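Marked as duplicate of an earlier ticket. Keeping the data here for the record.
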Amino acid sequence: MDEQIIKTEYSDVMQKSYIDYAMSVIVARALPDVRDGLKPVQRRTLYDMYELGIKYDKPYRKCARIVGDTMGKYHPHGDSSIYDALVVMSQGFKKGLPLVDGHGNFGSIEGDGAAAMRYTEARLEKITQEAYLADLDKDIVDFVPNFDETEKEPAVLPVKIPNLLINGADGIAVGMATNIPPHNLAEVIDGVKAYIENPNITTEGLMKYIKGPDFPTGGRVVNKDELLSIYECGQGKIKIRGSVKTETDKGGKNKLVITEIPYPMIGANIGKFLNDICTLVETKKTGDIIDISNQSSKDGIRIVLDLKKAADVDNLLNMLYKKTKLEDTFGVNMLAVADGKPETMGLKEIIKRNVNFQIELTTRKYKTLLAKELDKKEIQEGLIQACDVIDLIIEILRGSKNIKDAKDCLITGNTKNITFKTKASEKNASQLRFTERQASAILEMRLYKLIGLEIEALMKEHDTTLKNIAKYEDILSNRSTMLSTIKKGLDAIKKEYGTPRKTVIENAAEAVYEEKKIEEQEVVFLMDRFGYAKTIDTAAFERNKETVLNENRFVFSCMNTDKICIFTDKGMLHSLKVLDLPFGKFRDKGIPIDNICNYNSSEENLIYVLPLSEIKDKMFLFTTKAGMMKQVSGEEFDVAKRTIAATKLSDGDELVSIDMIDGVQNIVLQTNKGIFLRFLSSEIPQKKRGAIGVRGIKLAKDDFVEEIYKFDENTSIQITYKDKEISLNRLKIAGRDTKGTKARV
């Protein structure tokens, strides 16, 4: 067979492939379905637990078994994603309604991870069985082939409540993300019932029932007035604050006790919050906090801040709201898969789609139940009729040569090949017209069914079947009855599983605090050769001046409100606030500057350090290994950014020197091969910090600038080069960008 070559644009192939990949991630992995509020991995894990029979009233099973079975049958994307989903579904501090009952270490609110799956066990929660997985045997949802078409899995779980709202969702897909806050189960059910009763209800009307998010960590939503617009469009920012109360000890000192945290703080952010408070104390932004202790336990959050006796509690609390994560935002983006494509929906749209889904589930459920009851009715009516003519049926059976002839007689009245005692019996048998199901049931009926009580029970069962048929037909044919049935189911779930709201919804004023003015004072900056820096007061410096100068690489005076500028050989300028440095005793160790600014000691070397106040009105001379030079005004380095490029360097070039220059001075460049060149600084032009500069010396191959010296005219200056004294002021003044002269050694 001849091959057919299809020519196409490469860009078209890439575009189509990427779109296919993106949609696969969006629909099949990252985003929840609006109907059951579950991502595929969550849905498959719950269904696998249902299939394995790990019910709420059965023993726990190893999570490794659940994960392995789910991965092998339904979700071939790695065990970590399945176990992570299983863990999150069991964490009550993340989910408003946990769906999995975990046994063992399933992590903590402070960010501790769960134990390995081989150590933990799990089973379904009761509500998961009753509201998420019930009626799967009633053809209530479609089943689709799994990834290798060896198993069937539900396309969606028959969830009876709006799980997307109750448990919320978060996920990052390709080019889009979802972030839906959790809500209170009882309130959501009330909102659904209100929509069922009045489909024209507005979002504002729904919010009379659904007040706002209900986070499992509690806290306070403080922008109540903005919630309506968020719920109408499905996007916005919710401001959340932790719950704080004031306690007073026996000594009259106040304590701030944080009992609930904002939902985004769960995990590692609790540790960051404590570090942020420590930073506020260390940088003297507040002096009201004496001690911090995290007394949280399984019973709940309790973070205690011990305060000074005269502390301004309200001002301090506002500072914590502004400067730490005690007030945070939850970015709402109510994005979910609807009808096979991602869609951002408001509160009403989500409830509407859920109610439509409930109607579909209820319709399919009662159609299945009705079909079963009609089958039972047919058989029951056949058995009742058979009891009335049981003697004739026995005569047919005794006169038949095989079961086929007897069954044929019961269905069609065919009396051939059957021996009867009388013609009357044969005539009556020819009038029998049972259905095939009825005939099979009659032939399989045991003799004890002919007992009077059994016949009476059959009649009662038939009456029940007729009532069920009437009930199911009423539900299927009458919309109001169907909606009433849905509401009754919701009421039952609310009654058993509803809980009081945890999160307070209110309007609160913007946090405003008066920042304590820093008392300005002169300090001495010290940095040793290992990069440890600190500040000490001037009196301590004067007492230990000789030792300080001997033990430290950089020493200078500055104000505590100043900034420290750090220039490196890579041409970068890193700045840090003097207040970020520890202020203490002369013998205190200090702190590595790597920890408080963007300087990286493993990749760059310090060449110049001084305070910003000493830079602004000065000129600086830059010299690189490749001999490039320029003068730069200090005003170029007075910027807000913590890290900037102090100069532009060619590939492979490095800064050798940055030095302050005053007026016209003599410049001497010394190279690695002993070449010296003297010229006047006036030959070096002033440039912007983004310029490379001009060439100061013509270098021989493999040579580079090693040192630079500057001195005033009529000044005697000597250096030692390879054990020989050289008087730099006696070198002949040459022009910039010349070769220079070799030292005689």
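See parent ticket for discussion. The two ends are 86 Å apart (CA to CA).
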